Amino acid sequence: MPDVRIKTLPPPHGGKLVERVVRDPEMARKLMQKCSAVYDIKPTLFKGNPVRNVYREIMSVCYGFFSPVEGSMTKADLESVLEKRRLTSGWVFPYPILFDISEEDFKKLGVGAGDWLLLRLKGEPFAILEIEEVYEIAPGEVAVRTFGTPEHNPEVVKVPFDQKHTGYNIYCSLNPIILAGKYTIINEPKIRPPFDRFWYPPKRSREEFEKRGWTTVIAHQTRNVPHTGHEALMKNAAYIGDIEPSHGIVVNAIVGAKRIGDFPDEAIVEGHEMVHLAGYIKPERHLVTFTLWDMRYGNPIESLIHAVIRQNMGISFHMFGRDHAALGEYYDIYATQILWSKGIPSFGFDAPPYAVEGGFYLRPQNIAEFWYCPKCLEFAYSANCNHKGIYSRYSGSFIRGLINEGVTPPPQIYRPEVYKVVVKWWQKFGYPFNNEKYLKEREERLEVDLPHMELPAHLKK
């Protein structure tokens, strides 16, 4: 496999960047004429709360974040992903990407293989699904096989998944009927503020990297407002290992429905932006972006979708730390680093994901555990700090507890400028963290608006 240290951006995963967005209104009208029925996209609910909206997956597919995936998976692709973490084409892909509907809605639509279905979002035409196959799933089985079990994946899965895990609930809450086929966006959405200035789908991100002269780029995955530990992580990771150093640091925030207790997405993207606006990282080396995805909190499995997304964006290296993209104690805290260091055979990887057929050009930057040392007055690693007995590890729950009590975190935890961003959105929403109210309100507004587009006469019935 080619050496990614060659000074060129890595190729898209699968070899070709998917872009399935029609921008010509006349072409859009012609495509709508071929549709047999209209379906209004609905959120996936768990106990009445939105945990997923398939529109985000459609956006990420059609703008190339999930290349080479082009739509809702066939039954063969679903089985291949669950069994081997590979598409039937052989390319590594970790998660089921499915368009699910209820039996009742399926009967009302009256569609089948060969039909085209117009998908409507916020009352407007949005995308087309070219139905290739219709099949049924058992959502609970899909959920278990997606994340693994202690019996089948003993290397890294510690306890069975349950309803305390947000990602597991997403798959358990799917409808049983799957419509498989390619997506095409025919009414390009407008990204709403403040997300609009952070929208860098793969084609645009690659153009931006070339404009900036970046050929080696490292990704920082985030679902949090950045504390000073994240800042130290970005600064250090860009200068160690094989980076040589990295020309650019790209923050790619996951924007979508998340667990209750996480920060609002608006605060996350603007908080990371403030890191360079306030001068803590040079703006010419730092770019904040986002991907639409309802986070699954899948630790090693989630790291694979992150690799898909970031390699497609043109990113060559990725930071992976302790408990990467995790929730609870389901996985070993170093599961992602185990995967990217030597592989996890029970998940289909006898070698790291960059060393297998159909794997990645992107390379990992596994980060050693670090802490804030009150003696050194800086972030330290076990290899170079002699004060481990007095170190202070950052705790997200501790930080959230401070904020909930109205206590301003000290500058050793949050840059004052970043904390002002937290307060700004706290004042806007009336609460500092995701709660049921936020999840339901954001489902109404989403992250996009759509231009008005008339339905064809035959679909107005």
Automatic annotation (TrEMBL):
One of its GO terms (molecular function) is ATP binding. InterPro entries: ATP-Sase_PUA-like_dom (IPR025980), PUA-like_sf (IPR015947), Rossmann-like_a/b/a_fold (IPR014729), Sulfurylase_cat_dom (IPR024951), Sulphate_adenylyltransferase (IPR002650). Residues 197-424 form the Sulphate adenylyltransferase catalytic domain. Its EC number is 2.7.7.4. It comes from the Bacteria. It is an enzyme of class 2 (transferase). It catalyses: sulfate + ATP + H(+) = adenosine 5'-phosphosulfate + diphosphate. Residues 11-186 form the ATP-sulfurylase PUA-like domain. GO terms for biological process: sulfate assimilation. The keyword rRNA-binding does not apply. Keywords: ATP-binding, Nucleotide-binding, Nucleotidyltransferase, Transferase. Pathway: Sulfur metabolism; hydrogen sulfide biosynthesis; sulfite from sulfate: step 1/3. Belongs to the sulfate adenylyltransferase family. This is sulfate adenylyltransferase. It comes from Thermodesulfovibrio yellowstonii. The gene is sat.
